[in-house]
Amino acid sequence: MELKDFDFELPQELIAQDPLADRSSSRLMVLDKKTGSVEHRVFTDVLEYLRKGDCLVLNNTKVIPARLLGSKMDTGAAIEVLLLKRHEKDVWEALVKPGRKMRVGATVSFGEGILTGEVIEVLEDGNRLIRFDYEGIWEEVLDRLGEMPLPPYITHKLQDKNRYQTVYAKYEGSAAAPTAGLHFTKELLYEIEQRGIQIAYVTLHVGLGTFRPVKTENILEHHMHSEYYEVDQKACDIINETKRRGGRVICVGTTSTRTVESCANEHGFMRPKCENTEIFIYPGYQFKVLDGLITNFHLPQSTLIMLVSALAGREHVLAAYETAVKERYRFFSFGDAMLIV
Description:
- This protein has 2 domains: about 5-65 and about 160-340, QueA-like (3-Layer(aba) Sandwich), CATH 3.40.1780; about 65-145, Thrombin, subunit H (Beta Barrel), CATH 2.40.10.
- The strands form 3 sheets. The chain has a 9-stranded mixed sheet with strand order 2-1-17-16-14-3-12-13-15. The chain has a 6-stranded antiparallel beta barrel with strand order 5-6-7-10-9-8.
- Helix 5 packs across helix 6 (about 315-325).
- About 20% of the residues lie in helices and about 30% in strands.
- The chain is built from 6 helices and 17 strands.
């Protein structure tokens, strides 16, 4: 299976740069995974496609303001630090630009010295381990100085940090939002539960590997990035009971999908887990839990469009994307949504 098999033409102007004023007012393309037929709706119409007894799986990770802009303490040179993963209390793995200026022992200052950091190790992939020093509470310092780490294809400045968070975000740790969830409002989630559809919350902290392009022509040679996830007993019980009763498990986003498929055994039975996953889902994969998916429109040649193609078939997905381009759907993080059932 080759990378070019997942390519499509995408006009630059269809990449959404700003979130809509109303989260739930985006467009919704409904794709029948068996026939490939599509319908054009608005997102709140998702209620018409969910049935009593179904289960909706949401990723309740919370994005941290992980982008820090500072200056090198000895020269004053501008330095950008992107926090990726916490290793211990005040030590973070980070992506640093420009990296050549930040060798072991180099120090950087943020907010005129409110926060300082020292590079203590350069890792094999070029990322840095940085030990930070500050007074007060880390989360408050980061919220004051940090910016939301928007994907590279979004060039507009985000006016409201909360618009890059889902309304159910709870556990901090992501460098990117699980963007399919951005369409939901608290009111819509309440209405979903009132209709007898259960909601199971899982946690997967989204890493920047989400945006790394696939560089191998043979996709089977691609190595997925590792991401940490947690699934508790309550979520397992809801999902297992849904499957036992014959209800559908519909994941919101590719991160929720990767979580439940990583957590389940070969029979689709879920048990509580806290670990890292490198699961790579592409056509030919046999889903153990997932029945349907709510997702955004993804990058050409990305692992995300490969996952979607595993569920609905590559030909159906590429045909739907061609239709989305013709119909001027908005793409990527702040774009429109697709429901696959």
